[in-house]
Amino acid sequence: MQGKVLSCEVKCWEKRRAHRDGKQLGPGGIPHEQVSPNVVERVDACVAGPENEVEEREQHENDQDTTWFGLDRDLGGDPVLSEYRRYAAIMMANAAEISTVQYPALVSFVGQTNAGKSTLIRLLINPVQHQDSPAGLAAPVVGRGDSELPTSADVHLYADPGSFSATQPILFADCEGFEGGERNPVASGGGSVRGSQSQPIRRKAIPVAGSTHNPFRRFMPGTRRALAWARRDAPDRERTSKRQYAVAEMYPRIFYAFSDVIVFVLNNPKTMEDVVEKLLAWADTNRSKSVNLPSKPYAIIALNKCPNSTPDALWNTLEATDNLYKSMNSQIQNNNTFQAYVKKWESSRLRISDMEELFRCYYSKVHVIRIPDKSRYKLLEQQRDELYLIIRDCCSKSLMKKRESRMLPDTDEFGIYISLAFDHFSQTLEEPFDYVKASLRHQPPPQTMADKLYTFARLVAQRLGLQGKIETLFAKLTDMVASCLMLGAARKRLFGQPDDWFKVETRSSVLSRGPGYKDGVVGSVRDGSSIQEQCQAAVETYFNYEVPCQFHIESHNVLSVTGGFDCRQRKATHGEMHRSSIKYISDDRWGKFEHDFNPTKFNWPDRILERMEEMQKDATWYDNGDSRQARVLAHGKTLQRFYKSLTDDLGIFSNSVCLCCLSNPPDHELSCGHIICLECAKDFGRSDDPLKVIVDQCPMHDNLLRHQVTRQPTVIGVQPPHSGLRVLVLDGGGVRGIVELSVLRALEGRIGIPLHRFFDLVVGTSTGGIISLGFGHELWSIDECIERFRALVGKAFTPRKGQEIRGIRHLQLFIKRSKYETKPIEDALQSAFGDGNLFGTRQKNGSHRLKVAVAAVSEAGTKSLVLSNYNTNDGSGSPIFGEKSKLNYQRYRPTQREDELRVWEAARAASAAPGFFRPFVKARSPSPDSDVFPEMMDGAILHNNPIDIAIAEARKLASAQEQQPIPDLVLSVGTGLPKYTQTEEESSSRSTNLKDLAVQGKMGIHRRAPFIRTIFTMISYQIKLNLDSERRWVAWSEPLLRDPQWKDRLYRFNPDFGEEPPPMDDVGKIQSLSNNVVGWIENHADVQEKISQVACSLVASSFYFERVGKPVQVQSSSIQLRGLIRCRISENSQEIRALGAFFASCHSPAAFVVEDSADGDGDLRIEIPVGKLREHGLYEDIHVDITISSETTNTTIALDLRGISKNRRMFNISGFPRQLMQNGFQ
């Protein structure tokens, strides 16, 4: 086959003489082959380069969107590493297709300039075959055959369509050729500098007429990092500031640390000896720059454009690999370069006998594959398939290794870890990147007991400098942990001998996650494990991930600056080699992890049990039958001794573990700054009011220190036992948030009392998240919320300069990728919310803040994130209907309080609408131990109506506070119904049509133009905004509305104005929207009735029943109980008067009704003294005697409000109906 390729049908193959006798040969002596025309078309579409420079330039402009990271200059002319949001964009598209957790694999293509890396990736992606796949729309640009310049600039990232929706999606990284670094690639306008030598990195400028450069990508949103080793005062700046230095030195370090597979692409080399030398040199340089990696990368040597004269056997990958080893084995003793590596490893006590052993020092395994010239279509497709299978197999094995080491990052974790690597290598190219330390900076709140003990051990070790002294550390922790377990046993009423419950499997000791890793997580223990197993797991986790190897070699050189060789590898990632983290030492030593400590022999659980048995015999630990109060007092003494021994100041702090009991997440900040859980507040505080706990002194300080740091008591608001929660849920919608506020103002006007007095939990997303934080956390009145909301959106949606000019507006969207600037919205949020932390103090101006949660989404769009001003056990809660919630979201709570989100930052993260604002990026602390937040976007992407999250959070809170699992009331408020309620098919069709508009280029394989994609993002976002909220509510509420327990508890307001809601950024429509809500209410009697019912339900829920004394058995089966009907808002006389006015509007006296009383007189009715409420502003507890027929009787106490609502008169008080004897006769 030469020159032009001719394709013909199968039926005419035998008609040609050359095909019949097979004697006519093509180039290289290869017979003519029968090839399907489809194969020819696919291969040609993949390998054919642009015909001229103009077409090449156009393709590279379209390919700018795929840039992952690259080199640039800042405004001062200094080099920077620019990271773009390509990875997040790929994974977000993936998240829209599937709902399962994914663990991405990175396959990096490196090697010579113009070796064909881009062509190989294009063959693997096969854009013609996958043109309808979301992943298949992007493929690399193939270089022109007549150009010697590098093709692509920097590093581009592409998704593999074949694994796009799999558990392990494969990503292909196309790196700029290492030998082309000094010549600007074609994609960066290389033609204009052709032939130039040693040019420093050039900053792109705004384009002018006739310019051949494409600067747009350089201004697209991303993260820029200054290169400390290339700044103006850096040594050898002339060399380090050049493109070639960064491409050859920094890029390989990143690829070696994070690649599952590295594909070295070389153009048909003259000798394999040269190939092996390059591979070994590349690996030897970069391996020492990363420590504690979960696995070594696999390597594939792709020999591209192999001649037709290649023996048939060498097209087989196994034969080709074996041939490489055999040919190099004969050279290993003769080649000086090979000998240097062999001697290096022999000095590390590792004997190298052949080339395969030498390769395995650097790679998990090496494969060799030959790729033919494009003229051999059939063989080319065959080798392409073989390469793809090898990549899939290597990625699968790499995943298994990471899973075994319990360091398998999911989509979001991978993005965070590699971002930390960018941070690291921007600062230094000498110090190794520590994978374990990076992973420990991003952890979900600890859930299992093992997690909490592990976190506590880390805090104490850091405080006392005991990181490597594990035996000393855990010996010190023994007394404290034993005391906490004794207190915990009393709380769970596990009295008796410690051995009776310490070794028994208990569901309550285990939840679902470990510290930071899923699917084989660090420290996770199987469900049903005992406390003993949890304690052992904590020791083993700390030993595996915190304690370095003890291998050490003394230095015999008196001039040495290193002091010898110390291995710093952790046990979980040690492998077969000792490695140092000192930048001056790159030599490794053969050997496995060494340490004197043995977790099994140390047997920490037995030491804890022995200490608890000693406490059990001590009279101070029990009083009249092991009472809880006796253990609280004894534990308090242990706390004072332990924390006094740490330091002479305030000690340690944690936002994720209660340092008093090590059992619960902390939730209440004391005046000294420590945060404790509610149970500890109750145990160490006093309660003069059933709705308050007062903690006079922090239990972690001894008496002397208490007087120094505690200046005032801490007042903590608590929920009445067995009551129900009142939940407010707010949708997203931009400026249409004024609709929600207008609805809430109408409801507040109906009651006459500030509305935040009637809710316990507020959950919002997007604009609803901002309102939730203002209303619930800052305790703004509804009128103040409206005033601040108007001011905020007016600033946030300030048009960029030049927006009134159509061309400029389009150019800004193209360059910036967001319609609005970031600074105005952040300034507006900071002005509104100040600089206070989201989590910490629970009071403002003497009033208790409501519990508030706002929904955000990780930048990759794969995970819902909850940002809350409270803590809760994320695995706790009684499932409704007996089913475990399938809702997948994660709460971010940093361990250290200095890493906590500000309130304004939570608002910014929750409202970063795609296409309108850039994702929120929290500034990272320079401390290597600080927690790292993911980049976050508008929670409306996954939960524009966060009802699922709200109910899940309510369930967890109810479980932690001994409340009813079903809320008293759930109120969901939307921002306006769309004019047409589309079916799923119609919505899908419309979305598909929008996508079709964005697909450009012949054969459908070009990417969306940046401007078109930005417009598509905003349009599709608003379609989802309008349609998804109501559907989500209907899908969630319909089955519950048929359940009598839920029927009268669920309410939804979403005004229908009879027209399409305005765009979310149309600030000019705020007043008309507010007016429309007023008109909608006035013109719809059913809406007015619903408002009245919600008002009555909220008022009724402000009353609760408190049992007094013990129940009495009055007859053979009947039981008499005494109690009080109390009011949650009884302190404020003005609000009590308003409550009296509300009751006065009833058609008959408002009264409490105890239904189904067993005293034989029917329902018990107790009228409310409305006159006293209105005149004196005083509510006095109402005494009530209730007789029930048995312990299992369901009792209802309701408020009779006849006349306020036309269709309903009875409204249950909080927590009813329920069994009043659910705790028996205790």
TrEMBL record:
List the residue ranges of the region (Disordered). 50-71, 182-203
* Entries under Gene3D superfamilies matching the protein: Cytosolic phospholipase A2 catalytic domain (3.40.1090.10), P-loop containing nucleotide triphosphate hydrolases (3.40.50.300)
RING-type domain spans which residues?
Answer: 658-702
Q: Where is this motif: DGA/G?
A: 938-940
Name the active site residues.
S766, D938
* Motif position, GXGXXG: 732-737
Keyword Zinc-finger annotated: yes
Could you give a GO molecular-function term held by this entry? Answer: calcium-independent phospholipase A2 activity
The residue ranges of the PNPLA domain are: 728-951
Give the superkingdom in one word: Eukaryota
One Pfam family of this chain? Patatin
Q: What residue intervals hold the motif GXSXG? A: 764-768
Keywords for this protein: Hydrolase, Lipid degradation, Lipid metabolism, Metal-binding, Zinc, Zinc-finger
Q: Name one GO cellular component term.
A: membrane
Question: Tell me, what is an example of a GO biological process annotation in this record?
Answer: glycerolipid metabolic process
> Sorted alphabetically, which PANTHER family does this protein's record hold?
CALCIUM-INDEPENDENT PHOSPHOLIPASE A2-GAMMA
Protein name per Swiss-Prot or TrEMBL = PNPLA domain-containing protein
Q: Please name the source species.
A: Xylaria hypoxylon
